[in-house]
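Hi R.,

Quick one: here's the 4-hydroxybenzoate brominase (decarboxylating) sequence you asked about.
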Amino acid sequence: MTELISRGAVWPELDLSPQDRVDTWLIEFEAALAARDIGRAAGMFATDSFWRDLVAFTWNIKTVEGREGVTDMLTSQLDAASPSNFRTTDTPAEADGVVSAWISFETATGRGIGHLRLKEEGAWTLLTAAQELKGYEEGKGQRRPKGVVHGANKSRVTWAEQRAIEEKELGYTAQPYVLIIGGGQGGIALGARMRQLGVPAIVVDKHERPGDQWRKRYKSLCLHDPVWYDHLPYMPFPENWPVFTPKDKIGDWLEMYTRVMEVPYWSSTTCTSAAFNEETKEWTVHVNRDGEDLVLRPKQLVLATGMSGKPNVPTFPGQEKFQGDQHHSSQHPGPDKYAGKRAVVIGANNSAHDICAALWESDVDVTMVQRSSTHIVKSDSLMEIGLGDLYSERALAEGMTTQKADLTFASIPYRIMHEFQIPVYDKIRERDSDFYDRLEKAGFKHDWGDDGSGLFMKYLRRGSGYYIDVGASELVADGEIKLAHGNVRELTENSVILEDGTELEADVVVYATGYGSMNGWASDLIGQEVADKVGKCWGLGSDTTKDPGPWEGEQRNMWKPTQQEALWFHGGNLHQSRHYSLYLALQLKARYEGLPTPVYGLQEVHHLS
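And here's the predicted structure, written out as tokens:
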């Protein structure tokens, strides 16, 4: 049997069930790894194959490709990982000549789960994802803490008293091991993980309350992703939670979550500078907490400021002359003060559409200036066709858990993910053809991504260039939101003039012009030298629009070690904040406990911003 597998035998000739095929492959794979026979292990992968590892083998988030990639990774990591106990956790299934299986395994330091896809030639895709560190498991399930010490005790310290002691000491007489800058969903999720893993950490944010990142934005803002996609770690939304969460409601949830999960959270706190000491291996971070200047000395620094960097605020001739309001979309106060006035919104992606629709609702004469084409997908179609198999009531009814949905999505290597997405958007294109015809007849420039793969690939490659339609596109198609095209030439006292000479009268100009790379925050806080040292954040190196090559295979610098020791980036939507916070937390916990963490494939720097 071993020889047949190693030669890439044709499965039907063996007349094996999917379970037997997977069991046979896992047994042989584990035997090859145990014997340190890397050539034999790599030979069990198909010629075109992908192994995506989330911390378990590489202490990194890394995808290797082909037998050569597998060989290189195992040569570096096999002895330290020392994997064992591979087995299936569910009954494998077969479709279109591919056998798929959920698996579990162990390494020298942890336990993991994963996913395997087998073709006739061998493994096509393998996902290995660390879930916990041996000896440092979270206190949940059967390890749940008792909460109180029963019996009489004259020196008893209550839960509330202990929390008060911690709040008084942490950051003052006791230093955090991890400082998380940014208290939105990303920082809060990671802070909760740190708390459950027993790692001293503080989350700091400039706003007065957790959730203010949502509350203080324009009033019509809501989550465009459905509830099943947006749970936070440990505490899913209740079953009666709305499909799309309004901004103030998600703000209240984040505030409640922070308190219930006991996340050490410093509000009204601004970081002014940070520097890493190569000798002491610690950061010196200057902060101002509600008027008090403090110095924190964490060992690890996490920038959790979202998936985007600083707002891109364009500079145009005549801006100083303009007599109305002008601001970036991130600072948009809402539509109320502009009722009956004229607004020009520069941009045509998510924020631009949302702001234009809110302005229209307040009887503002609004014009959207589209500078380049945008991908639009209707919310209902995205939920049903794009997300329904993984994140929906239908998926839940069919036994799809949030964890399994996250790992299913993670199991598809980025190199071939567009191949899975193109058929999805072909169906959406057909289903909503009348909508797209109307939109384009109104003059809107629409695209499906460079290769027809739609929204998710645009998000992963560039983090921009799309809008999930919850109503604004209908206003564009009907002409209620006016359209103009081209770049801005200049502003006058009361208008915006485009390069072709078109003049748009305006009382307010909103720059919905996106954001830079996250390393821009590192530049402001630490210095340009460190920002350049770590390089651009986000993107895959797909060599598509706004995602320059070379191919990198994972999100640049996100949730993994960077070229700057002890500096990490954490962000993304609620789904990514939930899912990847686990892997970042395990990396930080291992370092806190002094475990060996040999990193394979450290992020190279090809682009500075």
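The chain is about 35% helix and 20% strand.

Cheers,
M.
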